[in-house]
Amino acid sequence: MSIKLLLKIMLTTVFAAVFTQTVQAQQYKVEFEPQRAELEQQITGDEFNDYLVSAKAGDILNVTLTPSNLSNYFNILPLDSNEAVFIGSIEGHEAKYQLSTDGDYIVRVYLMRNAARRGETSDYKLTIIKHAGVAVPVKTMHPSWDSDGDGINDCENDGSCDHTIDYTKPKTVN
To answer: How far apart are CA 89 and CA 111, in angstroms?
Structure first.
């Protein structure tokens, strides 16, 4: 075996050991009283907490996260899916989402990578309200945010999206 090959194998093993981290996850079944659940918890570093919500198509989830660390967000995703239907780091700490299918959904609370790498902690309050089959007005992006007319916010292309901006309102030039 050549020295170069042996060196590559050793470096790969070292990098794999250094960059492989155990992610701690907790899962909780949300119990509504009668349609509201309030949970207070804490996460640190790479931990995340999953809250299982059973719902029907047309139900609306109102989710609000009040974190002590502003790098603490939540996503909403169907159970057994890695594709989020709501991404808190883009859309903010509040969601009003009408579910499209019957089934179980996960509200996943996590720290952004910058805070997780530093081992930061966040105490948070998560409020989940489930409304049965009430129509919700759909938020639509104002056309001024889509200069090329492809239906995708221009900020998605250049990575400049900011959850503090209301993209339903006309774009203003400073």
So the answer is: 10
Instruction: Outline where 52-153 has alpha helix (H).
Output: 88-91, 113-117
**Amino acid identity, position 117:** R
Sign of CA dihedral 68, 71, 76, 77: negative
pTM for the structure as a whole: 0.63
Residue pair 50/28 in contact (Cβ under 8 Å)? The answer is: yes
For residues 7 and 78, give the distance between their C-alpha atoms in angstroms, rounded to a whole number.
Answer: 43
| Ordered structural domains, the chain, with CATH | 22-131 (2.60.120.380), 139-174 (no CATH)
How far, in Å, CA of 100 to CA of 107, rounded? 16
Looking at the chain, how many residues does it have? 174
DSSP helix/strand/coil, 64? strand
Q: Which two tokens stand for residue 165?
A: 């901006």
pLDDT in tens, the chain (174 residues): 566 544 455 444 433 333 334 445 666 677 766 678 899 999 999 999 999 998 888 888 899 999 999 999 999 999 888 889 999 999 999 999 888 889 999 999 999 999 999 999 999 999 999 887 655 555 677 777 777 777 677 777 777 777 777 777 788 776
